[in-house]
Amino acid sequence: MKIHLKIHYHTKPGQCIGVCGSSKQTGNWDTSKAFKLDYLHDGFWAGTIDLPANTKELEYKYLFINENGESNYEWGKPRKINISGLNNSSIYAVEYWRAPSNEEKVMYSSAFSNVIMRPNKSAKGSVSKAKKTLQFKISVPRIGEGYQLCLLGNRKELGNWDKSKPLLLSCGDDFPFWSGSLNIAGLELPIKYKYGIYHVKRKEVVTLEDGQDRIIHEIPDDKEFIFLKSDESFRYPLGNWKGAGVSVPVFSLRSEKSFGVGEFGDLIDFIDWAKSVGMKMVQILPVNETIASHNWLDSYPYKSISVMALHPIYMNIHKIGALTDKKQMAEFAARQKELNKRTQVDYPEVLRLKSRYYKLIFDQEKATFFDMPDYKDFFESNKEWLVPYAAFVYLRDKMKSPDFRVWTKNSKYDKKAIEKISRPESEEWDDIAVHYFIQYHLDKQLSEVTKHARNNGIVLKGDIPIGISPNSVEAWTDPHLFNLDAQAGAPPDDFAVKGQNWGFPTYNWEKMASNNYLWWKKRLQKMAEYFDAYRIDHILGFFRIWEIPLHAVEGVLGYFKLAMPLTRQEIEQFGIGFDYERMAKPYIRYHLLLDLFGDYTGEIISQFMEDKGHGTYQLKEEFDTQAKVNDHFLKDIVEEDLDDKNRRIRDGIFDLLANVLFVQTDEDQWHPRITLHNTSSFNELDAYTKTKLGELYNYFFYHRHDDFWYHKGMEKLPAIIAASNMLVCGEDLGMVPDCVHPVMDQLNILSLEIQRMSKDPKIKFAHPANAPYLSVCTTSTHDMSTIRGWWEEDRASIQQFYNQELGNEGDAPFFAEPWICKQIITQHVYSPAIWVTIPIQDLIAMDGKLRWDKTHEEQINEPSNVRHKWRFRMHQSIDEIKKAKNFNNLLKMLIKESGRDSDY
What is the torsional sign of CA 631, 633, 637, 641? Predict the structure, then answer.
């Protein structure tokens, strides 16, 4: 069996084109043994591969090979040629190098190929078994339900350009690859053709690709052959595809069926509503297990104790089954009704009641549960993470602490010991196995949502937090993968002027790289069971993370890691006389104490300071870190109980400790303190030193690390995102190095664009019309105020926005009236961005009757408050939104008129 390959690709001198594939003749996927093609002319390469007669299929890819032997494959999955049953026929394949545009590549993600673009895979195409067969083949993922790919051309067999008589192509399980064939005997050359999209019910071509005709000038002269014409890139006359979506935390959904908090099952009705108005995406916040302290701190969804386990709060108790004790069921029904009436989520109480229900129903069902085939399949597929997770949760509750370091037993993970207590015959079995029961039902309920979303063409988009809790099952089982002696956070920004301290350990990337990021790959593969798109929280953390030493409380005392700290010599090369006492130790002067503490100054000096003379002070050793100061003030109380005086004193001492110009990370390793320009230490320097320090600061944060961080991102992200076929969206806000967006572009990671957070320091607002195509454009995020809340924050800024961005004249209204919100949403849906995904609060703001009058209670999170309670629950139920006719008609109109409802 001979396969004659011909491909067009312009190489550089010294390079050649090869074929690597599944046969011995093509190297068995060993690139060093690839079959090399011969150069013909004008960029054409060709070669003949002689395969054994019993070969059934050949998988292969083209690659270019440098003169030093290095090689690079073309983009995409392997090509396939089915050879079985062809007898003596030769195959001639004329092909093109696969290098689709970034706009095309995103269409191959599961968000499109499995959810949005769902053509009828059983539709039949033209098939020829003639001795002389011409087969057309092309990869087209962007084609929706009810449509089929076709081909029109200048010959009768190709419809003579009649849109009612095309040659139909089929895809089957090979979608998005389409193919069709015809008898070429006697067909006059040249053959001119174009691909089109065929409406199955109307039986006509509704879209014909743009551009010049594709042409076949010559065909083989063998007696029997298959001539495979493999094309690339359908040329859409419609322009780029665009879609609309809505974001909402699961806990914020309101329905009568749930139990005081939004649940997975509520997403089904919410998805139905989203579909009814023309949306194609529902985005949610993380839904992994976060229970550590059984209090409000656990409501923070970005501090998971397991990156695999789902959060028990999202389970619907009625779908597990009813308790046989009718009195108990009545009690739960009464509490459910009461909690559903509340304005906000009562996280601790809901969790307490649900946990009790889970234990009761488990005791009732356990005798038969573990024999269920579905459960056995679930356990077998998930036991690698499920067994240590369930044991961790059991030990957490038994030891009354998630901090495994203080446990009296099992403080260090021992796989054999954990497997021993996890056996059915162990004393601990019931207390451990109940968590298998809970996770099985959570998986079942979320999987039902996933199936419903996919069947209805709605992309369910998840969220991957950048960190984990230091008191998590992963930190317990795999401590070598994390830097547990440090904390992750974010540098200061407009939303948190002192930075953020998330309390997460940072990653030991060197260890993670040693097994090609297997931990991340497993995490993403698990996520892909439920989602077809995901948001990478703080994607900057894959380039460098903001690390905060354990002795600090505020993010302002952090530094980037990985980074290239300065040496003393480098600092002095900028013309700065480095003075350790003046620049690296807290700058404390009497007049600064007066400014911070006023009448309390004498008390502060007496209790906390050592007098160094001449109006200078240093903190006593027992108060010389923020952590020590915080422990002093919060001894025997919690943050909420700290009175105003002590809060002012504590925060003032925090400011003094952060009043430095350099942060030291090792001997002769110095990082300029972030936002040092805002410190009194900087302001009281001489003008020359200020200038030079400003130059050093700019060099360090905006130029020194560009190439270094680029390579750090490219070391990790390609391997990690390749673990799944989900659509990847990066949260690229904050202090973004110049190297980040080239990496995101190269890897087809969508950026996040927010109108009030311009990424260009020269302009205040980022108009949605200027958003790149490969981006998610939105009005706000969970870490920001809503449109209505923002409108009331800064009058001068809003006036500028009202006149310049919205194009309105006169004074801006004091409140964001519905018509204002509509103007803003309209700007967004007409954006060129591939996705416009708007928070539900901002969408409802367009309807004066439907929206809530408590504007500021709609904000989900306050990033500057580490003890914030995540409790926002929608004022409107899903049923009420479904019945809001005027609101839904408005949304339908905006989505349709902006072209965000296209089937393809």
Answer: negative
**Is residue 56 classed exposed, middle or buried when 0-12, 13-18 and 19+ CB atoms within 10 A define those classes?**
exposed
Say if residues 202 and 903 touch (Cβ distance below 8 Å).
no
- Which DSSP letter does residue 310 get? B
Beta-bridged to residue 204, according to DSSP, are 199
Structure confidence at residue 123 (pLDDT): 87
Q: What angle do CA 760, 242, 451 make, to 5 degrees?
A: 120
- Phi, psi angle pair for 216, to nearest 5°: -110, 115
- Residue 126 pLDDT: 95
- C-alpha to C-alpha distance for 171 and 194, rounded to whole angstroms: 18
Distance, CA of 624 to CA of 497 (rounded, Å): 22
Do residues 266 and 840 make contact, with C-beta atoms less than 8 angstroms apart?
Answer: no
Calpha distance 212→901 (Å, rounded): 28
Which residues, in sequence order, are CB contacts of 214 under 8 Å at separation 6+?
Answer: 192, 193, 194, 195, 231
Tokens standing for residue 541: 């953390």
What the block records as the tokens of 2 is 């001979």
Which residues are paired to 133 by β-bridges?
Answer: 183, 226
Structure tokens that stand for 118 in this block: 């769902």
What contacts 24+ positions apart, CB below 8 Å, involve 628-633?
Answer: 628/551, 629/553, 629/653, 629/654, 629/657, 630/553
Rg (alpha carbons) of the chain, rounded to whole number = 31
Specify the residue for token string 């590549």: 105
The pLDDT assigned to 119 comes to: 87
Which whole-number Å values give the CA distances from 338 to 160, 312, 357, 359, in the listed order?
Answer: 70, 20, 16, 22
pLDDT score, position 834: 98
- Continuous segment of H or E residues that includes residue 227: strand 225-231
Per-residue buried b or exposed e for 335-364, using 16+ beta carbons within 10 Å of the residue's own CB: bbeebbeeeebbbbebbebbbebbebbbeb
The tokens describing 387, both together, are 């067994």
Pairwise CA distance, residues 596 & 747, whole Å = 49
Residue 111 tokens read as 């968000």
For residues 361 and 321, give the distance between their C-alpha atoms in angstroms, rounded to a whole number: 7
H/E run at residue 148: strand 147-153
Which of 564, 560, 467 has the alpha carbon at shortest distance from 506? 467
Q: Are the C-beta atoms of 901 and 278 separated by less than 8 Å?
A: yes
Contacting residues for 558 by C-beta, under 8 A, at least 6 apart: 489, 491, 499, 501, 546, 547, 548, 549, 552, 663, 674
The candidate with the shortest Cα–Cα distance to 900, out of 748, 776, 806, is 776
Task: Report d(CA 544, CA 561) in Å as an integer.
Answer: 5
* Half-sphere exposure for 399 (CA within 13 Å, toward CB): 19
The DSSP code for 34 is: P
Question: What single letter denotes the amino acid at residue 231?
Answer: D
d(CA 604, CA 600): 6
As a whole number of angstroms, the distance between CA 550 and CA 537 comes to: 23
Say how far apart CA 637 and CA 616 lie, in whole Å: 32
Output the pLDDT for position 658.
98
Residue type, 599: D
By C-alpha distance, which of 69, 24, 16 is closest to 47? Answer: 16
Write out residues in the chain with pLDDT < 70, as ranges.
Answer: 87
Expressed in percent and rounded to 5, the helix, strand and coil fractions of the chain are 40, 20, 40
Contact between 391 and 413 under an 8 Å Cβ cutoff? The reply is: no
Query: How far is residue 757's CA from residue 777's CA, in Å, rounded to a whole number?
Result: 11
Does residue 419 come out as left (phi exceeding 0), alpha (psi in the -120 to 50 range) or beta? alpha
